[in-house]
Amino acid sequence: MFSNPGYGTFEIVRKNDSLFAEFQQTRFFLKHKHYDVFAPSDAKHGIDTSEDTEGMFMNFITNDAGDISGVKLKAEPSLDHPIEFKRTPKEVAVADEIVNQYTGDYEISGMTIKVYVKSGKLYLFVPGQPDYELKATSTTMYVIATLDGFKVEFIPGDNGKIKELTLHQPNGKFTATKK
Predict the structure, then answer these.
(1) Could you tell me which of 66, 163, 90, 111 has the C-alpha nearest to residue 153?
(2) Which of 9, 67, 72, 176 could form a disulfide with 106 if both were Cys (CB 3.0 to 4.6 A apart)?
(3) 3-class SS at 134?
(4) pLDDT at residue 57 above 60?
(5) How far apart are the C-alpha atoms of 2 and 63, rounded to whole Å?
(6) CATH class of the domain defined by 2-87
(7) What is the distance between the alpha carbons of residues 8 and 24, in angstroms, rounded to a whole number?
(8) pTM higher than the cut 0.90
């Protein structure tokens, strides 16, 4: 999901081998131009490239971790800059009994970090830092809500119980072992 406070939200969806930008009132086929730049074309009935939107390109932005973090779109001809839409990863529901397996203390480089549930939400606490809310993007992968490009992955052992977590950060991956 991509959103801008003044221009609303849209979603990028894949159908077969094509990408589409789905806005509330319309749908665009995204034709690849170069690198991270796509040209939207009206897609009323399948792919209709006869009504190309000249000069209105979608330029996808990556964060330091290499993930898509937003898109710039020159949708307003009167503006001298493109409009930026921030990407919000799609959250998935994870059963409480699975989430509860993630809670506990984890050790990394002699430091203890904590994972806990408060008011039905999962949090990560690193000493000397604020508590970070975690949002599930899969059963085992969570993004840190306030830090772009930071993720937490819970790793089960052979017995199915969580044995460690991996912190995915722009500067690398770091593993913490569950105590």
Answers:
(1) 163
(2) 176
(3) strand
(4) yes
(5) 15
(6) mainly beta
(7) 9
(8) no
